[in-house]
Amino acid sequence: MEVQETDIQTDRILTIPNLLSMARLLGVPVFLWLVLSPVFDGPDLDGWALLVLAASGVSDYLDGKLARRWNQISALGRILDPAADRLYILSTLVGLTWRDILPLWLTALLLARELMLLVTVWRLDRAGYAPPQVNFLGKAATFNLMYAFPLLLLSEGSGWVPSLAAIFGWAFAGWGTALYWWAGILYVVQVRRILAADATAD
C-alpha cells in the first residue's frame, strides 16, 4: 500500500529507521577499506567485507519496513535510504572494479545510470520539489545488485563454492543491471511529468 504524503512526519529525525540508514552510511567506508585491503598488500578481509554487505542488506530491508509499520516515514528518511543504497553500490563498484572482479564496461553502465539520476534529481530540486519516493522496481534492482556483489566477491578463488557463486552472482548482476536502468528510466519519466505539469500550471 502506498504511503500518502500526509503520513510523512517531516519533524522527526531520530527514528529507528533513520538510525538504521545512518548506520548503513557509516558502514560504506568500512566496507571499502575491507574490500581494498589486498590491493594495498594488506590481509584478505573479504569475509568481513561480505559480513558488512550482508548487514547492509538486512538494514536496508528493515528501515523501510519499520518506517511503514511504525508510521515513522520522514523526509530525512526519504533522502538517507536511497543515499545509502547509492553509496554502497558506488563503493562496491569501485572496490570490485579495482580488484578486476567486475569488468569496466559494467561499472561504466551502472555509473551512467547514476549520472542520469543525479541530473534528474538536480532538475527536480531546482524546481523546488523533493525527490519522489523510491519505487518497488528500484528496490528490486538494488536487492539484485546487493546479492550480486557479495556473490562475485565470493567467486574469487577455486572450488565448487566460488564457481557456484560466480554463476549466481552474474545472474543477479544481469537482472539487477536491467532492472536498475528500467527503474531509472521510469524515475526520469515521472520527474518529466512533474516538471511538465508545473510548467503548464505556470
Annotation keywords:
mainly alpha, single chain, disordered N terminus, 202 residues
Task: Give a verbal description of the structure.
- This protein has 6 helices and no strands.
- The protein is mainly alpha-helical and 202 residues long.
- The longest helix is centred in the last third of the chain and has 42 residues, at 160-201.
Task: Give a brief outline of the structure.
76% of the residues lie in helices and 0% in strands.
The total count of strands amounts to: 0
Low-confidence region ranges: 1-7
Query: What pattern of helices and strands is seen along the backbone?
Result: HHHHHH
Mean of residue pLDDT values: 83
Q: Gap between N and C termini, in Å?
A: 32 Å
Shape type? globular
**Mind describing the biggest β-sheet?**
none
Q: Which structural category fits the helices and strands?
A: mainly alpha
How much of the sequence lies in strands comes to: under 5%
**Count of alpha and pi helical runs:** 6
- Helical amount among residues, as a percent range? over 70%
Please give the radius of gyration in angstroms. Answer: 18 Å
